Amino acid sequence: MTGSIDLIIGAGPSGLAVAYWMAQYGINARIIDKRGTKLFRGHADGLRSRTLELFDSMGFAHRVMEEGYHAAAFMFWRPDGKGGLQRTGQQQSSIHASSPYRMALLTQGRIERFLLDAIRGTSSLDVERGVIGESLSYDESLENDPQAYPITVQLRTLSEAEATPAPIPGTCPYHPAPDDRDDLIQKRKHEVGTVETIRAKYLIGCDGAHSWTRKQLNIPFEGSHLDHIWGVMDVVPITDFPDIRWPSSIDGPHGHLLMITREGNIVRLYVPLQEDDEVVADSFDRSTVTLDMLRERVKKIMAPYDFDFKICHWWAAYQVGRRLTPTVNKGRMYLVGDAVHTHSPKIGLGMNMSIQDGLNLGWKLGLVLKGMASPSILDTYASERHQLAQKVLDFDQRWGSFFLKKAKQKQQGLVVSQKEQDEMQAAMQEAFVENELFAEGHVAFYKASPLVHKGSTAMATHLVAGERFPAALIRNQADGQPWWTTRLLKSDGRFRILLLAGDVRRQDQQSCLSAISDRLTELLKRFTPPEQKLDSVIEVKAIHSAPVDEVELSDFPPIVRQFDENEGWDYSKVWSDSECFWDQQCKGNAYELWGVDRSKGAMVVLRPDQHVGWMGELEDVAGVTEYFEGIFHEVKP
Amino acid sequence: MTGSIDLIIGAGPSGLAVAYWMAQYGINARIIDKRGTKLFRGHADGLRSRTLELFDSMGFAHRVMEEGYHAAAFMFWRPDGKGGLQRTGQQQSSIHASSPYRMALLTQGRIERFLLDAIRGTSSLDVERGVIGESLSYDESLENDPQAYPITVQLRTLSEAEATPAPIPGTCPYHPAPDDRDDLIQKRKHEVGTVETIRAKYLIGCDGAHSWTRKQLNIPFEGSHLDHIWGVMDVVPITDFPDIRWPSSIDGPHGHLLMITREGNIVRLYVPLQEDDEVVADSFDRSTVTLDMLRERVKKIMAPYDFDFKICHWWAAYQVGRRLTPTVNKGRMYLVGDAVHTHSPKIGLGMNMSIQDGLNLGWKLGLVLKGMASPSILDTYASERHQLAQKVLDFDQRWGSFFLKKAKQKQQGLVVSQKEQDEMQAAMQEAFVENELFAEGHVAFYKASPLVHKGSTAMATHLVAGERFPAALIRNQADGQPWWTTRLLKSDGRFRILLLAGDVRRQDQQSCLSAISDRLTELLKRFTPPEQKLDSVIEVKAIHSAPVDEVELSDFPPIVRQFDENEGWDYSKVWSDSECFWDQQCKGNAYELWGVDRSKGAMVVLRPDQHVGWMGELEDVAGVTEYFEGIFHEVKP
């Protein structure tokens, strides 16, 4: 019997997100997956703005930007009344002022590549592939002992045949990206057939909608199993449809078609496999669906434009299940991602929710496993992510209802007037705009908790405790380079105190900074192991509002200008919200974005996931102290 | 005895640049290097704007942007007259309107990584490491037979000891980037000691300043060996010098110090190892230089600021040699990069010249080896690159003279007045501005040749035949995405005809386009093997000046809208010079940048290296035909 601090079951995006944090915190974790290789094609493909911001903080957003399709607008098509189709509207994304990213589209296979590379960059943690759990037991009596291993799991190593999913008929051969080639070969940690019993402190089930872990935990998966069958396919379309390289939808006489532009020349198409008037078709057997049925349905909806394809990378037929577990854990065993919630893939949120679930749980688990924070902070995983999953399901329902309503009208033989059609499109566009911040992940509705202090917001009127810190382009004081905050606020496991130091040319701001520097040093010492660097648990950064050229780094106190005997002064902690002559995007307006007075500033605490945990006046060291006392164990000298 | 189409000796940046083209054209080439591994640290580090543009066309500029330091300004420091130093000026780069890139700084080791990855992405060509040439012979009688192998080279495989350079005393252990780890292990194609005789059609000597190839060819290396000894080191400085994270220079009482900011927390320092009054020191032995001597010199010059370091990645002592070969080839054996020219590393041009040499020769060689073009086009390698090497040496001399003058004045005991100092700094700044376009590689002075037609420029007043095509941000017609021309004009081996189609909403422009489409199709057929796609030798792209939304892709003729039976329509060939609502950098002003009338447009031919080969009126198919007739062999039907 071997021991593991924690065991992650499933190495999709959510499992890899948890593993990312284990690597960052240096936790001796294991991660298994039943498939013999990583995923290469198909499945999820939509990355929302907030997920890309997180990827930036993890060091690989640029890889998505290089390879993916960037979506900034959506096209609507409808019948033109003369037997044809016409473009009836364009919905533009409106978030470009507040984030470096809009939605990007790229196959899940590449996202797994980037996550794997990020994990390998900082640790020796590697996915054990072709391994399944066979039994799971839990000793509740050990639950409250942090040193105990209450979980026992039996694992079995699968053969290549067992670990290889059935090929999908009609798909073309796969030509992997050069850096994915090594992963085509199946590798095993143990010999095939090996049965291993391991004990773990924590177990994280990231094993998808049909989660083995969830079944072992006897957690129900509640909700509706909608009967409408959809087809989804990633193809290289042969078509004269004018907007085939724009994300777009057609609401035609034969049904609804959703087209999502992808990397290279790929387009993903979502198509209902029945005519609208066959909405509830009990007799329809999903297993009888073929790729040609999808092809024919798209042809019919897209007519009079041509449609066909010879290259198909992936396809599936699915029935939308809108389901949610009533709880996300049983003791120290947690569920993450699709194991907790499923909804329609068409809203482009699945992979984002899964990754953000994994990231949300991962850093908290890391802090607990390192003995730095109380296990009670893990409760916020449920309070933050479960309510959000419910909101996503509501959002999905609202979107779905537009299509459903239309289908019902048709089913009932109602003639839908032009006016009604116009109203529905207007309603859809309105819903799009209303929901954009939510869909892009810019609002998350995290509630008050030990990790989120909801107090006065007067000093930073556009910041919300619990929400993400709005991204801005600011300049490094030492070298003047403009960086997005998403990049400089790295996902490296640390909390951050941001001293929005205001106009540091003023004597009163300088005095204030000096005074709080000493007090913050004392605060950091209380929570940082004495053998570690003072900024290893909580890092203090300053972002002032004076021009880079008018102050010097040496004007700043030691807390943001630490000295290392090997590496000299730290140049990464002082930043300026000012214009940059060679980058027009860098306008020096971050303070306005955050709603902070340029003269006197404010203080903000960011959690390791860059959500605002606390905010107060620049000099409110007492307040920030109280916040951290609620999270961290004081170190013993 | 084995045969090889061509043999590249040396796998530094210039050799890899040649190999890049061999991979693109699918040439069965070999590349050897005497070192047992790639380079990881030290050596060159400066990448000029034009080199980064080329990297963008090769698919990896984003990796440099992610890892490197971006230089946009330079700081000048001088004595303050009170025993200290003061910042006396800042020189800002001014090229940001005409290129996506300014200078970037990153170790040559990473550049080699990116080049190797690009080569591996399209071919199985791999560097044979730990291999040297032992003898070389050339049969001139075979020179004019394209099928002959006039070159015979004997190669020997070295042992690990032979192929490992001596360690540099005082440097810290190397922690490779994750993707460089595999390259730390020495691998051999053949057993150690194997002697192999190979015959080659062409030989490319990319083996540096001490080129073995150059010696075999008996080509002299002419020029001065300057006696001044410099030290160079890549360190993590421990200093309170305020501009340590800006590229900067100090002209202090004890000499000149040049500081180049680098990736991470590294700074490269160039320091003269003698006081100025010891300029010609015959007794000074370079082999006696130690890292501590460099440290002490920098300490002295940087005083009263502190300076020290504990981490040194690389260092060297060198004497500037300003040398040039009188010729770049002997028959089919060519020299490239430092084997042709050496100058001071301080001007930050070495790696750029070497890479651009290799790229310049490589595509021409590719076309010749594929039998598509006459070997006479190889003569333009000499006419284009040799004159430029001479200009770089002149530029180096001009820069060097500023320091030399100062040193001389001091040596002669002249008191340099404040006014004289001010004048010299002003002169240096003026020289910087004057030379910026040259130094950044935006002007190259390529002469008229079969590859460069110098005719009327009335239709594109800001374009110059022979020069690079100025980079602009334009939008794809099919999906509206903004792309820099440097990215969309890929270095894939093809010539390109750019139809700057003007305002295609106008009927006269539409008629003109239709007419030339058919004639250009005929032209392409003459030079494209019948079994290949029509755009495989020369690609036609259109860049029109109408807004994306006001025209449809289907408005364009077949030459820029090709149909493939497997992949459907080609969406990569029609572009619009218009504004983009989500990208403020994309202003729709490319026609103005190129000096082209927005209504009636122009036609431009770009060579595979994106230099302008020909330009004329939009309808001038006769002119463009004549240009290509001078380069390509007509294919036999």
TrEMBL record, chains A, B:
Keywords noted in UniProt: FAD, Flavoprotein, Oxidoreductase
GO molecular-function term, one example from the UniProt record: FAD binding
Phenol hydroxylase-like C-terminal dimerisation domain ranges (all copies): 446-633
Domain FAD-binding intervals: 7-136, 187-395
InterPro entries registered for this protein in UniProt: FAD-bd (IPR002938), FAD/NAD-bd_sf (IPR036188), Phe_hydrox_C_dim_dom (IPR012941), PHOX_C_sf (IPR038220), RIFMO-like (IPR050641), Thioredoxin-like_sf (IPR036249)
Superkingdom of this protein's organism: Eukaryota
Keyword Nucleus attached: no
Entries under CDD domains matching the protein: PHOX_C (cd02979)
Pfam families cross-referenced by the UniProt entry: FAD_binding_3, Phe_hydrox_dim
PANTHER family: 2-MONOOXYGENASE, PUTATIVE (AFU_ORTHOLOGUE AFUA_1G13660)-RELATED, TRK SYSTEM POTASSIUM UPTAKE PROTEIN
Sequence similarity: Belongs to the PheA/TfdB FAD monooxygenase family.
Name assigned to this protein: Phenol 2-monooxygenase
Provenance organism: Aspergillus ibericus CBS 121593
